[in-house]
Amino acid sequence: MIQVTLISSEQIKANSVILENVDDKTIRICTLKAQNYYLRSKIGELLLEDLYKAVIDYNDNNTPIPLEYETLINDYLQLAIVEYTVSLCIDTLAFKYSNQGVEKIGDEKSTPADLDEIKYNKQQPFKSAEFYSQRAIRFIKNNKEDYPLYFECEDNFIKPANKGYNSGLYLDK
């Protein structure tokens, strides 16, 4: 599995509530998880892997990223990745993991959030990410000729979702 982010830590910080003093390593780990947990199931493994290869070619050989991929990444996927990353970072930023165990992070001037507040704060960016994922899927479906890998899928790959947003409501047809 390719390990490349489609957005930098600096872009995540600039476009989210994550502060500048948050370690880039933490953001990178959460961004990779966001891409692999959520984006892979939204746009499918074949398209995501092809996007990764285009970004790697650009980084390694200065090969231009195809315009249709650049548009998809910059105008659609990065919006979802930012919000998924924020949602995943909340746990990491709320707790410190050490050989002593799991500890709440806090100091004299701050009060650590309780579990209900953490759960609530995770839901808001996740809902936004789902909305942006739906927009990306709609864009891909409206531009079928530019993204044929979304519509092709082999049995041993993760298939793309038909919709990117689940409201949590079941409406019987």
Helix content: 55-70%
Count of separate DSSP helical elements: 6
Q: What overall geometry do the principal axes of the alpha carbons give?
A: elongated
What value does the average pLDDT take? Answer: 86
- Overall tally of domains: 1
What assembly state would you assign to the polypeptide chains in this entry? single chain
Give the total of beta strands: 2
The fraction of residues in strands falls at under 5%
What is the end-to-end distance? 39 Å
C-alpha-based Rg, rounded? 18 Å
Poorly predicted runs are none
Strand order of the largest sheet: 1-2
Structural class: mainly alpha
Largest pleated sheet: 2 strands, antiparallel
- What is the N-to-C succession of helices and strands? HHHHEEHH
Describe this structure in words.
The chain is mostly helical. It has one domain. The chain is built from six helices and two strands; from the N terminus they run H-H-H-H-E-E-H-H. The chain has helices at residues 9-14, 24-43, 45-61, 67-94, 115-142, 148-151, and strands spanning 95-98, 101-104. The protein has a two-stranded antiparallel sheet with strand order 1-2. The protein is elongated.
Would you kindly provide a brief summary of this structure?
The chain is mainly alpha-helical and 173 residues long. Helices cover 60% and strands 5% of the residues.
List the defining traits of the structure above.
single chain; 173 residues; mainly alpha; two-stranded antiparallel sheet
Question: How are the SSEs placed, and which strands pair?
Answer:
Blueprint lengths: L8 H6 L9 H20 L1 H17 L5 H28 E4 L2 E4 L10 H28 L5 H4 L22
Helix pairs in contact: 2-3, 2-4, 4-5
